[in-house]
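testing teh design pipeline on a random one, pls ignore if ur not involved
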């Protein structure tokens, strides 16, 4: 089951991409120590678990990255190559299930190195200063970087275990060399698309719609609660870059007794306003895909029925009346 967000998680966790997600290509490159638990576990997209009585050759099995008890000066650290270069908007230092072995404090640094991995000469920039941590807790910390970064280094003071590290940010794709006329997935999260708003995300996050590949299971998709009143559910997506949509894919894989009966899409070229104002505006956007029947556990492709709206920046995806969709792909050409 893919990890879901706690109800009190801040907005940046729902709006922005986890740039440290291995499903997008993030890699834990190097750590000062990983005696008790390997660094790769810290990046797992699944929620951390605790298994009482489970031990391995190094001691108690823990779902995260855990270093040995430091008996010298200094502190432990781990370098992660982000899935895509991007700005950093916030992080989560998650110490779930680490109680007597969590770090008293942690910080995050970042750098930009497009062609090589960091070395001793790398210039690191502090993104999150040293922050006091508690055991078995999420620590959501806002950041606001103007420049893009390719790598981060998380520092534990002085040692201990971190169940998960999430680095939420906005991918910065380079569109200058994109071939003209070639279809590009403008709703891909790795290209910079993101969810502006969604009316309901009870069983699954709307941002999952934008992930690569097909869903692994019913938990790997956007699913709303059962609607008991008139109306329908919706989400608004900011495209990775402005473009003209030529093909749409709506994938309901794994959703069988709970797929939406129909769907529609609206689109617009937005030049002003805020994310909050878009919620109201989107109700009046012109139709991109007319109301279309959906099937369970099926990849739907729409081309001939699309209405040419020209270059657009945002879409509103309406599912009627409710239910679950695994992936949404909007294939278009750039100007």
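output:
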């Amino acid at each position: 089951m893919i990890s879901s967000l706690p109800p009190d998680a801040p907005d940046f966790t729902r709006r922005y991409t986890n740039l440290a997600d291995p499903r997008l290509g993030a890699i834990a490159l190097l750590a000062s120590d990983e005696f008790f638990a390997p660094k790769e576990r810290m990046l797992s997209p699944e929620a951390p678990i605790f298994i009482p009585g489970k031990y391995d050759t190094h001691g108690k099995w823990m779902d995260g990255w855990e270093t040995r008890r430091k008996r010298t000066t200094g502190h432990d650290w781990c370098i992660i190559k982000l899935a895509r270069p991007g700005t950093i908007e916030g992080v989560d230092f998650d110490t779930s299930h680490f109680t007597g072995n969590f770090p008293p404090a942690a910080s995050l640094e970042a750098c930009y190195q497009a062609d090589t991995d960091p070395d001793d000469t790398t210039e690191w920039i502090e993104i999150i200063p040293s922050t006091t941590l508690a055991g078995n807790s999420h620590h959501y910390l806002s950041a606001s970087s103007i420049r893009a970064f390719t790598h981060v280094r998380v520092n534990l003071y002085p040692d201990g275990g971190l169940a998960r590290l999430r680095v939420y940010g906005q991918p910065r794709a380079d569109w200058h060399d994109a071939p003209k006329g070639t279809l590009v997935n403008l709703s891909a999260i790795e290209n910079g698309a993101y969810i502006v708003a969604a009316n309901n995300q009870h069983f699954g996050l709307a941002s999952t719609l934008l992930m690569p590949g097909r869903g692994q299971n019913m938990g790997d998709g956007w699913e709303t609660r059962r609607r008991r009143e008139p109306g329908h559910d919706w989400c608004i997506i900011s495209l990775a870059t402005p473009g003209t949509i030529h093909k749409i894919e709506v994938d309901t894989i794994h959703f069988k007794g709970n797929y939406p009966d129909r769907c529609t899409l609206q689109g617009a070229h937005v030049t002003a306003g805020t994310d909050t104002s878009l919620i109201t505006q989107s109700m009046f956007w012109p139709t991109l895909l007319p109301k279309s029947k959906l099937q369970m556990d099926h990849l739907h492709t729409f081309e001939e029925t699309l209405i040419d709206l020209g270059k657009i920046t945002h879409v509103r995806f309406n599912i009627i009346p409710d239910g679950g969709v695994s992936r949404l792909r909007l294939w278009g050409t750039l100007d």
